[in-house]
Amino acid sequence: MVADPSLALREVLTRLAQAVGRYRDEATYADGHVRWSLYRAAMDTPAAWPLLFEAVAREPDGPLASAVVGEVLERVPRDARERWIRLLPAAVRGFSARRARELAVLESLAHDDMPAEAVGDLIDGWSDWLQRRAAEASTDRDVLRLVSRRGRTRRIRQAAVDALQRG
Fold first, then answer.
1. Sign of the Cα pseudo-torsion (160, 78, 99, 62, in order)
2. Which pTM does this prediction carry?
């Protein structure tokens, strides 16, 4: 069980709530679900990201902090990702570190900077999430054909086939 948020975190959460248009007090923010809801609203409000960063730095619930960072990584520039990951306790940092690496791969695929040969060497080590997103991000027909044959699940392979048919 995670302890009640510190006074410092409650103060940041109050400012964060105001930044995203939630002016009514959310009690003590003791409930992780309440904090998650606020964090989700802040993720969709780039102007609130500095306060979100401060809140995550003080967040006592490691898995909750990890979930926030995992989602934020898709929204922040590539060069800011490591800073967010370093906020996390080492015990929960692995998921976010992997997601940052996966996002870098997706960006390479979206810009057609990763040839099909490289994809062929790496795809078996990719998560289902990355394989599915690769089918959505790539426009390289050779990459899409490879994913359509070697994707781990039927859904992944079908996504690549669908992308081939659209292209």
1. negative
2. 0.85
Give the pLDDT confidence of 119-160 residue by residue, as tens digits: 999 999 999 999 999 999 999 999 999 999 999 999 999 999
Report residue 70 as tokens.
């995992």
- Asked whether the beta carbons of 3 and 26 are under 8 A apart, the reply is no
CB 40 within 8 A of CB 90: no
Cα 164 to chain centroid, rounded: 26
For 13, 49, 81, 99, 114, the CA distances from 75, given in Å and listed in that order, are: 20, 10, 9, 12, 22
| Alpha carbon distance 115, 129 (integer Å) | 20
Distance CA 64, CA 47 (A): 21
